[in-house]
Design goal:
EC number: 3.1.-.-
Family: Belongs to the CRISPR-associated endoribonuclease Cas2 protein family.
Order of helices and strands: EHEEHEH
Distance between the termini: 13 Å
Shape: globular
Strand order of the largest sheet: 2-3-1-4
Cofactor: Mg(2+)
CATH class: Alpha Beta
Mean pLDDT: 88
CATH topology: Alpha-Beta Plaits
Helix content: 25-40%
Low-confidence stretches: 86-95
Largest sheet: 4 strands, antiparallel
GO molecular function, one term: hydrolase activity
Number of helices: 3
Subunit structure: Homodimer, forms a heterotetramer with a Cas1 homodimer.
Number of domains: 1
Structural class: alpha+beta
Length: 95
């Protein structure tokens, strides 16, 4: 079974309804760390499934979704400044 990877998902979605749908969809795969940024720890097939779902939600003419694979060593070296920047390690919902 493939191991879980860490992905950073960010979006810029112009319409409120689609933005809310996208956020609720991503919440099933990870945790919100900023208004439009999520950290997801999932297997590669779950990441592809998530991106396919988001593709159906957004308008590609006006919106964008970015998904970045982050290696474990790099993720452990992340730095955060300001409010709500340190999150407790938790299990993510994985499909």
């Amino acid at each position: 079974m493939p191991r879980k990877n860490t992905y950073i998902i960010s979006y810029d979605i112009s319409k409120d309804r689609q933005r809310a749908r996208a956020a609720n969809t991503i919440k099933d795969y990870g945790i919100r760390v900023q208004k439009s940024v999520f950290e997801c720890r999932v297997r590669p097939n779950a990441f592809l499934e998530l991106m396919a779902k988001l593709e159906k939600i957004i308008d590609p003419k006006t919106d964008s979704v970015l998904g970045y694979l982050v290696c474990e060593a790099c993720f452990k070296r992340k730095q955060a400044i300001g409010q709500n920047t340190v999150l407790e390690e938790e299990d993510f919902f994985v499909i």
